[in-house]
Amino acid sequence: MSNEVKEIKHEAMESLVTAVIICDKNLVINYINPSTETLFEVSAKQAINNNLSIFFEDTHHFFKKILQKVDEQQNSYKEHEYFLQTHQKKTICVSLTVTALIDSKDEFVIEFIQMDQQLKVAREERMFIQQQANTELLRNLAHEVRNPLGGLRGAAQLLEQELSEDSLKEYTQIIINEADRLQNLMNRMLTPHQMPVYKKTNIHEILERVGSLILSEFSNDIAFIRDYDVSLPEFVIDREKLIQAILNIARNAAQAMKRNNQDGMQLTFITRAERQIVFRKKKHATAIRIDIVDNGPGIKNELIDKIFFPLVTESENGSGLGLSLAQNLISLHQGMIDCHSVPGKTVFSIVLPIENNLKATQDKE
Fold it and tell me: pTM of the full predicted structure?
């Protein structure tokens, strides 16, 4: 195979989300793609011209036998659930495929798909479909409620004008106040459908704003802890919508800790860069991860898979819309949100791509 053809094939493999290794029949590595570097935590510089054993422990004879079989039968080999132990002492379950490289003598392509990565992609797909359904449900519900709500409030105002006793007017005021509360709720439900205003923003400015709002609402009861990667670059987002999304999550966490009446309540914001990360069926060179961590009671097991559904809440006074709206707002920024919870530690993780196709809104003159 000519060097030019090799370069074209290698370039095509660079963007694959699956790990790809090209080696010869003696297991000497000729090429690995960036996903392989990420999966096995070995750089291409370390791996090229080295033996395949640089990645794994006790697998030399296994792969030697597979390559020989593929070479003899001229068929690809597949193993759906194979456990590998890396030199970093990590055990990973992979689906692997071994194929003889066309137009190349004694070269083979080994492709690895991490099984938990497949499960993650499937879960993201389910969450994305559910998010779309949630958005449509919220939008339809808000439109259906707003019109009769306005009529209800107007009728209460007219009734109040006809009443002579102030004691009776207390009841009409209850109707008017509750109608206003529901009207505000409907406005919040329709917030994602307002025109976005995209600006280049630093994520830490947003987190500091959310932190100040939480501290002002919950006084000094909660310790606000920062763990920031200050090297993170600015990126294009709708500042107000992202503040609202993170505020919804942080407020839920603070309310859960307050309901638990615990001492030493802590809310932690962590930012990190994620490289070569895959989410929403796309590989991103760099993304920003925001972890919102609380030391509250945790989320019940029966609710953990439903917390982003509309009207699902553990609070008697909650609307059950905060997390659903947060998911919608994060989705507008091409990001993903996930949650892991055990008693004493709940983590909401938001991942946002730094390079996106969102264009900064031009200021009106």
Answer: 0.55
